[in-house]
# Entry
Amino acid sequence: MKIVIPGGTGQVGAILNRALSAAGHEVVVLTRRPAHEREVEWDGRTWGPWAEEIDGSDVVINLAGRSVSCRYTPANLRAMMDSRVHSTEIVGEAIAAAARPPGVWLQMSTATVYAHRFDAPNDEATGVIGGSEPDVPDYWSYSVEIARAWERAQEVADTPHTRKVALRSAMVMSPDRGGVFDVLLRLARLGLGGPVAGGGQYVSWIHDRDFVRAVEFLIKRDDLRGPVNLAAPRPLPQRAFMRELRSAWGVPVGLPATRAMAELGAFALRTDTELLLKSRRVVPGRLLAEGFDFAYVDWPEAAGDLVRRRGDRDRAGAEGALVSGSS
# Structure
């Protein structure tokens, strides 16, 4: 199959590109700064020659959007909104104009669309959409509105010959450098991976290999459309999540952090505490109902695999550096 991935140079795009290319598919990445073979320039807003890649393709997986790893200033929040909505709109226009439109359009979304809650999990049928929760920062509701506008842009696109699926993804955990697992592992290794603000908030996650398998599953299933949660079936409180990560790496303790300490740390890292403090208790109702079999259901097993693979990559990198240095 020919698979086009707008915005495919980030962590999730790299995971999919690597796996789908290894499976024998032709993968084309649309990016602002093409640097490798099968990368094509686009700006995520305007029509251009890149649209020719979509015409005749089999699958489009749109991942484009400004990274959420930043301070949630009004300017950054607006950039998140605009980059997601505009890129989705222009992808929809390219699919609508294609003489041979793709069979399926998988559109990245986010589990952040659901409410901050502790009492029950959010699935696609009964989950509570966020935006009106009490006792949370006002700007959290804007994050929900970004997610809703992102999905609406796909919903209203006039693409009658292309099946549309919105990927409400939890945090994708992979051993790659620069991703969310890399950040969390670094905190654990420094002894800072303890409970944050009590640690009762739920963490939803998905192992990178299950993420790829779920995408492949959704591509093959012609009867599935609309929002689909991409998350492991058993989210867990942050205190337990970090305890299991520390255990996998062999770190006995993790210093706890108050909300105020988390604010200071997030400021230093140029990120935002919503990523730490919002309770994302999300479960994959539709995937489970349709028979998708998760390889990694529980976090301890997933964390163990990710730590092992990270160690393998670090050792391979060190050996490569030694060989290079001795040559």
